[in-house]
Amino acid sequence: MTCLLLVEDDPDLGLALRVLFTRAGYEVVAADDGQAALRLLFARRPALMVLDLVLPGLDGWDVLDRTRDLTDLPVLILSGRTSPAERVRGLRSGADDYLCKPFDHLELLARVEALLRRSNPEQWRGDYVEAGLRLVPERRSAVWQGHETRLSAIEYRLLEVLVRNRGRVVTTEQLLDLVWDDPEATGRERVKFAVLRLRRKLAVGDDDDPLESVRGMGYRYRGEES
User: Fold this and answer.
1) Which helix (H) or strand (E) element contains residue 22?
2) Are 126 and 137 in contact (CB under 8 A)?
3) What is the tens place of the pLDDT at every residue in 190-202?
4) Are 181 and 175 in contact (CB under 8 A)?
5) How many beta carbons lie within 10 A of that of residue 129, not counting itself?
6) Do residues 85 and 61 touch, judged by C-beta distance below 8 A?
7) CATH class of 3-119
8) Domain boundaries, the chain
9) Rounded to whole angstroms, how far apart are CA atoms 79 and 91?
10) Among 8, 36, 45, 219, which one is least packed by beta carbons within 10 Å?
């Protein structure tokens, strides 16, 4: 049974979410503060974290930072902070999705399912090599110019889609559909910040950046010449 870590300090909402996820077939472990969340992260190794930002002790931002130091499991922020700046901060800090309160229960379940589906490493089989870059699915990593780096599930899938379409522009809408399973394109900023994180992890500079931003359209993998 897939295990979800729910981090929520509101007891009523926490109970409602535990019931929702349990009825959907998930095992749920819950924490109502940041320290407890990190302890459960170590002890239970969940498949996904649903994270509130306003927590006693360590707040959600600290939990997210420490989680990203330890693991690349998908993190969905579930927060009452609805401003675009907060959503941007969450995605830039490494969250894979951001859903504002109040929310629709079916939409929340759909987003969790999409993140889990995209994070399943069994869908990637065999190394993929293309013009200077090697994708290593069993470690969910990328080797660029001799440097190997681990990627999150979303980052790996994003890079894989771009690499397999080398030389062609993949639009933001196509990436949202293929990588985030968001055919309605409701989270366009997610693509921008995922690409920024990829560039940082690959340690690319302006002269050797294999990921080209095509203004008003999307992104293209250029790679190196064979």
Assistant:
1) helix 11-23
2) yes
3) 899 999 988 888 8
4) no
5) 12
6) no
7) alpha beta
8) 3-119, 128-221
9) 13
10) 45
